[in-house]
Design a protein that fits this description.
Two copies of one chain form a homodimer. By secondary structure, chain A is an alpha/beta fold. The first copy, chain A, has one domain (3-262): Carbon-nitrogen hydrolase (Nitrilase/N-carbamoyl-D-aminoacid amidohydrolase, 4-Layer Sandwich). Chain A has seven helices and 15 strands. In chain A, the strands form three sheets. In chain A, strands 5-4-3-2-1-15 form a six-stranded mixed sheet. In chain A, helix 1 packs parallel to helix 2 and helix 4 (159-167) packs parallel to helix 5. The longest helix of chain A has 26 residues, at 183-208. Chain A is globular and about 50 Å long. Chains A and B meet through helix 4, helix 5 and helix 7 of A and helix 4, helix 5 and helix 7 of B.
């Protein structure tokens, strides 16, 4: 990418996987027409956010990768000449399911997958029940339009995940997300929660001198009000594009490799990391 | 600390170390009277920012720790019953100098020191010439008013430094700083630079569920215009106190252990860190 336009598909739960795919294909076509060359879906775009409760029937929503959904997306990617990053519920084996993102190149090639490493578990976000923690580590993928990485939702709170993906050479870090407010929290700390979510990811952009693009869903599902606000942060952590809090939409931003190069020359953090001193990052806590 | 008021001494270069110490003692007295229990200086508070140029005479500015300055600060800490965090130019041995922060407890005890781990080197900030990189790692100190950590200036851009200090139990992370604009950059990217500086540290507060208190200097020294704006971020990364861009002043904020506890229960990132997957953080870059 010398300069590349990216598009974030901020959607809502659709009545069926078929409807979600239809919506996504229409938005992919729209985004390509608007000049976007890399397009990313929200987290688990093909399904509702089923993790609100623990129910074994929802494992039926998972699908193999590659599978019918990635095939349809690959066809669309090839037809439009765009890179597609899509978040899916992966069925790997009986009893082994992952929260996985695929990266499909602009010629339809499935370049690979990233499996969500950090899995949350709290009331309304019962993900440790569904998702086996990722075992592929952090990755980046060289696409026709730039080298990109993906981390997924809860991962976005962990600077280690962003750092490792950037060390793999990612110039743009995509973060498909499903985050929202619970009614018990929204009035009291809802604004602080959303700001914190924005801040920590903007911080990743600063610390790593890369672009960060978070794609969240909108709409109410059960008690959860997904807060949308998909955004792109530039290499100084400035928010250069933001979606609304409650409407489906396509959020666009232009990312510029020259700006990335210049930022990393001005502030060469990768030059100075004290890699000899980071061993304890592999510890849980450093008790007195 | 159940709740503790902290104070940041945002100063400027004084004509002499004696004048800087006088100013600091007056501000310590003022801060204590205002209820502050932990007080932190800017980086290298006793000297100008001599790192603007490489000149061996400036090694004369360094002092031993403990030494006359820490003794004076310890006396003041004991007299006022406040914890003092002070940033000094440490003379360790001939040819071994560090950029060091000391933590003095409210009874005057020198609890220990932290030596700046990440050393910058760019035009106007010629620190690799002066400062031997720290060899003590990241630390936290149990003071009368809470467990605190210190990282210094360039360290603040590295999430690893903040994380490791927080893993040592720091509830408040102090960051003495000397950062400013160069005339060649201010108009073009000055606003973005200052925002990035704020953002990445607010991000540390979010990622670690701790308070972050950055103390910067003000005033023009040579070409550098130090941008002040000392601030405190709360456990959601919200800026709860900010200093001006150009005036010396004491910036106050109240930090609350109950809020920290609650934040980490709501978002238990320390529970979920994938410590099995962080080994490559010890690598310089992960080439394709």
């Amino acid at each position: 990418m010398d300069a590349v336009r990216i598009a974030l598909l901020q959607g809502r739960a659709e009545p069926s996987a078929e409807a979600a795919l239809d919506w996504t294909e229409r938005r992919l076509t729209e985004a390509a027409a608007a000049g976007a060359r890399i397009v990313c879906t929200q987290e688990l775009f093909a399904t509702p956010y089923f993790c609100r409760v623990q129910d074994a029937r929802f494992f039926d929503l998972a699908e193999t990768i590659p599978g019918p959904t990635t095939e349809r997306l690959a066809n669309k990617a090839r037809e439009l000449g765009v890179v597609v990053v899509a978040s899916l519920f992966e069925r790997r084996a009986p009893g082994v399911f992952h929260n996985t993102a695929v990266v499909i190149d602009a010629d339809g090639t499935l370049l690979g997958r990233y499996r969500k490493m950090h899995i949350p578990q709290d009331p309304g976000f019962e993900e440790k029940y569904y998702f086996t923690p990722g075992d592929l580590g952090y990755r980046a993928f060289t696409t026709r339009f730039g080298r990109i990485g993906v981390i997924i939702c809860w991962d976005q709170w962990f600077p280690e995940a962003a750092r490792l993906t950037a060390l793999h050479g990612a110039e743009i870090l995509f973060c498909p997300t499903a985050i929202g407010w619970l009614p018990s929290e929204k009035d009291r700390i809802g604004a602080a929660q959303r700001q914190a979510w924005l801040t920590v990811q903007r911080g990743h952009a600063v610390a790593n001198g890369c672009y960060v693009a978070a794609v969240n869903r909108v709409g109410r599902e059960g008690q959860i009000e997904f807060w949308g606000t998909s955004f792109v942060a530039d290499v100084y952590g400035e928010t250069i594009a933001t979606g609304s809090v409650d409407a489906t939409e396509v959020v666009y931003a232009d990312c510029d490799r020259a700006a990335l190069e210049q930022r990393r020359r001005t502030w060469p953090f990768f030059r100075d990391r004290r890699i000899d001193s980071f061993g304890d990052l592999g510890k849980r806590f450093l008790d007195e």
